[in-house]
Amino acid sequence: MRVITAITVFTFLISCKNEPKLQLNYTEGKAFGTSFSVQFIDEKEIDLSKSYDSLTAVINASMSTYINDSDISRINKGDTRVVIDDHFKKVFTVSKYIYIETEGAFDPTIGVLVNAWDFGPEGRITSLDSLKIDSLLVSVGLDKVVLKNDRIIKTHKNTFIDFNALAKGYAVDVFAEFLENKGVKNYLVEIGGEIRAKGTNAIKQKPWRIGLEDPNFDGTQSYSKVITLQNGAMATSGSYRKFKLDKKGNRYAHIIDTKTGYPHKSNLLSVSVLANTCIEADAYATALMSMGLERSKEFLAIHPELKVFFIYENQDKELETLAINSFPED
Question: CB-based contacts of 131: which residues, under 8 Å, 6+ apart?
C-alpha cells in the first residue's frame, strides 16, 4: 500500500509540474469612437492588438458614417455602384429582421431626425416645425431600403442609413468570433459597454462578472448590480446620459419615436438585454428604450429568449427595477 501511495503521489507531482501555466492576455484601446478591452485565457502570452486594429479598420471602412468615403457614406450620398461586403450584409440583414420584429421601433434610418432634434445649448430641446418633421419622416423607414445583388437600393433618395445603434454590438461579435477562430475558449470582449463572454476566468476559476451601470445623471459611474456572464452577450441602452430638456425642465430620452418623429418623454432610464449575440442585444436594447416600459413588457412576453433588466422612475421619481424572462440575479 505504501509503494502504491508513493507512486501515486509521484505521478501526481509530475502531472502538476508538466501542466502549462495559464496566462491572462489583456488589451485595451480606442475604437468606434469609444474604448474597448479584450481579455482571454491562453497557455502563452499573445499580442493581438494589431489584429483588433485591422478588424476595426475594415468595419469602419464599411459602415462608419464618420468616414466620408466609407461604403455607407457613399450609399447615403446616392452612389448605387457600391458593392457591400459581408460585414454590411450581416448588419443590414439583422437590422431588417429586428425592424420587422419590433414593428419599426428599431430603425437605422431614424438618424436624420435624431440629428434634427440635437439642437440648443446644454442639451436643451429647440422645437422643430411640424412641417419640417413631416418632411423628414417621408424618408424614414428601413422598408425603403433593400439589398439586391450585393448592392443597397433606396426607394427614397434622402433615406439616411446609420448603424450606430448596433455597430458596437456587431464589432464585439466580430472580435469574439476572431478569438474563437484562434481556438480561444475563455474570453471577455467589451466595446463601449457592450459585452460578450465565453467560458470562465480560468485563472481565478470563477465566472466572468459583469456590472450593470447605475443611472447616474451627474456622469459618475457606479454598479449596484453584478451578474455572471457565460456563453452570451449583454448590451445596455440608457437615457440618463443622452437626454434633452424642454423649457419646463421635462426630460426626454435621446430616442426618437419612429412613428411621430418626436423625442420620447420616457420614465425608462436603462435597458440591459442578454442575448446569444451582441448585435442582437444591442439592437433590442435600443428598440425597447424606444417602446417604453409597457410596450416592452408586451413584446417580451412573446420573446422569452431575450432576458431583460429595466431601471425606471416611478410616479414619485423613485428608482425601480424590473427583471423579465429570468434575467439573472446578483
Answer: none
